[in-house]
Amino acid sequence: MSAASRAPLRSNRTAARVRRRAALTTGAAVAALLVSACSSGGTSGGGGQTGFITGSDGISTAKRGERADAPELSGKTVDGGQADVADYRGKVVVLNVWGSWCPPCRAEAKNFEKVYQDVKGQGVQFVGINTRDTSPGPARAFEKEFGVSYPSLYDPAGRLMLRFEKGTLNPQAVPSTLIIDRDGKVAARTLQALSEEKLRAMLAPYLAEGSTDAKPEK
Fold first, then answer.
1. pLDDT tens-digit series, residues 23-50
2. How many Å apart are CA 170 and CA 46, to the nearest integer?
3. I want to staple 151 with a disulfide (CB 3.0 to 4.6 A). Which of 83, 113, 172, 194 is the partner?
4. What is the per-residue pLDDT for 112?
5. CB neighbour burial string for 6-40, b if at least 16 within 10 angstroms, e if fewer
6. How many CB atoms sit inside 10 A of residue 208's CB?
7. What's CA 153's distance to the chain center, in Å?
């Protein structure tokens, strides 16, 4: 085989190696993010964390004025629809990361639906992020079993979770629960399954907050 004919083969092999390295890098990033996946607890933050504190109850909070913007979170839902967290600006958003394969997620699911039904008339929206379910079928079965009525974005590879900046109140385990305030900023996070009482306590401080974008009444 001549040198000229070997050159395209070398080029093809090089391109294939680059693609494999890129895929491995993405997979490693997702695996690192979910290293404590499906645990009943976890540690908050990471290198360079700033602007928030973690209480003895395992809930991390950021003061108003020191909260990071929530990233763009939109896409296809478990039931085949579409959802965009930005559409709920002006409401308090409870964001729950879950998987049908995760026992702690199953333990807390009914608690989330119960609280959602109680507070949805108070300017609150619940949104799930379903992750690491390789097809929507098990996730839909999970929602049916536990009567989950709020939307869940379908994110099998965990790419939505990677949109949160390192060092902020980002989801780092399954389950994770975040509170996004009425201004679209991440106000609180926990990396543990929540009882009904603990979820209510986590949410309560933000129900009374108004949006800083709200116009004063005349």
1. 444 444 444 444 445 743 333 334 345 5
2. 10
3. 83
4. 98
5. eeeeeeeeeeeeeeeeeeeeeeeebeebbeebbbe
6. 8
7. 9
> Model confidence at 103, in pLDDT bands (50, 70, 90)?
very high
**Tokens read off for 132:** 């690491």
Neighbour-count burial of 160, counting CB atoms closer than 10 A to its CB (0-12 exposed, 13-18 middle, 19+ buried): buried
Report d(CA 205, CA 83) in Å as an integer. Answer: 26
Sign of the Cα pseudo-torsion (172, 123, 118, 61, in order): positive
HSE toward the beta carbon, residue 196, CA cutoff 13 A:
9
DSSP string, 24-65: HHHHHHHHHHTTTTT-S------TT--SEEE-TTSEEEE-TT
Q: Report which secondary-structure segment, H or E, holds 5.
A: helix 3-33
HSE-CB for 63 with a 13 A CA cutoff: 5
Domain boundary assignment for the chain: 1-33, 52-207
Helix axes of 136-146 and 103-119: crossing angle, nearest 10 degrees: 50
Check whether 95 has a pLDDT greater than 50: yes
R_g over Cα of the chain: 20
CATH number of 52-207: 3.40.30.10
CA 104 to chain CA centroid, nearest Å: 15
